[in-house]
Amino acid sequence: MNDSLIVVSAASGALGRLVAGHLLARVSPGRIVAAVRDPGRASDLADRGIQVRRGDYDDLASLRAAFEGADRLLLISSPELDPARRVPQHLAAVKAAGDVGVGAIAYTSVLGADTSDSGVAEAHHATERAIVDSGLPYTLLRNPFYGEAFVNQGLRAAVAAGELTSGTGGRGLNTAFRADLAEAAANVLTQDGHLGRAYDLTGPLWTYPQLAETLTEVSGTAVAYREDADGVAGPLAWLHGQVRAGALETQTEDLSRVLGRPATSLREAVVGVLAP
User: Fold this and answer.
1) Which phi and psi angles does 38 have, rounded to 5°?
2) Which of 53, 70, 121, 142 could bridge 109 with an S-S bond, Cβ 3.0-4.6 Å?
3) Within the chain, where are the H helices?
4) How far from chain centre, in Å, is Cα 56?
């Protein structure tokens, strides 16, 4: 794999940059291509020796040019959330990959995309089907919700208040952290044995009451847990509702297997968040 050309689409995003960093530890920078909508936003990648090519999900010709010569392509899902725009973007990327003869494609999908064609999974379901139908060798990386949506600097306020609230009903969350998912993607791009597989990637199951206990342990300040579904607003209200309904409790060992190590634990993540 050290002589192969690896293309990462949407490489200027948070996940793409992390994947690029892991690839740099495995292959020479000249064998990595960052395909981005705006090359001007990827100067930091170019400074590290990575090839930067324009690859706009709304421009099929640019995708063909960006994917040319790729032995492996990581298709990172578009940041566009509206399926009416996201699906055509993804289908264009799959077509471009087929047109230029990409050796294999790995796609960042979402948990449940194999069984659901609606809601969060709608665009991913359509993209998975298109990849399988393309005849290209593939690996499907079905990611959960990012742990960073829940375990972040905002927890410092809970420590200061001595109380953590949520509307999750004490149900489990199978989130995984972006750094782990990026490392898993880099492994798939640089190792053999992953083609034809679909991985349901989940981190260790955790609950908000456990999070309160972990905050107490790590901070040295007592943090009580209180259930308060009405106190959660914005996008988190919907997410907490999904947790409360048990929708985030699917659990597999796929992530730790692809990583070759245990996925980041809740305690490790909390230590990172609360570190000075």
Assistant:
1) -125, 100
2) 142
3) 14-24, 43-47, 60-67, 83-99, 122-134, 155-161, 178-190, 208-219, 235-244, 254-259, 266-274
4) 20
- Could you tell me whether strands 72-75 and 224-227 are parallel, antiparallel, or unpaired per DSSP bridges? unpaired
> Which run of H or of E encompasses 141?
strand 138-143
- Alpha-carbon distance 215 to 271, whole Å? 9
| Neighbouring C-beta atoms of residue 114, cutoff 10 Å | 17
Q: Each residue of 98-139: pLDDT tens digit? A: 999 999 999 999 999 999 999 999 999 999 999 999 999 999
Which burial class, exposed, middle or buried, applies to 234 when counting CB atoms under 10 A from its CB (0-12, 13-18, 19+)?
Answer: exposed
Confidence class of residue 201 from pLDDT cuts 50, 70 and 90? very high
Give CA–CA dist 4/72, Å, rounded.
8
How far is 127 from 124, CA to CA, in rounded Å?
A: 5
Contacts of 119 (CB under 8 A, 6+ apart): none
18 touches 27 (CB < 8 A): no
Say which residue the tokens 């055509």 belong to.
88
CA-based torsion, 31, 33, 34, 38: positive or negative? positive
Under a CB-based contact definition with an 8 Å cutoff, are residues 94 and 105 in contact? Answer: yes
Token pair for 91? 């289908």
**Do residues 245 and 168 touch, judged by C-beta distance below 8 A?**
no
130 by DSSP, 3-state: which?
A: helix
- pTM equals 0.96
Q: Is residue 244 within 8 Å of 227, Cβ to Cβ?
A: no
Q: Which tens digit of pLDDT belongs to each residue from 133-180? A: 999 999 999 999 999 999 999 999 999 999 999 999 999 999 999 999
Residue with tokens 């705006």: 38
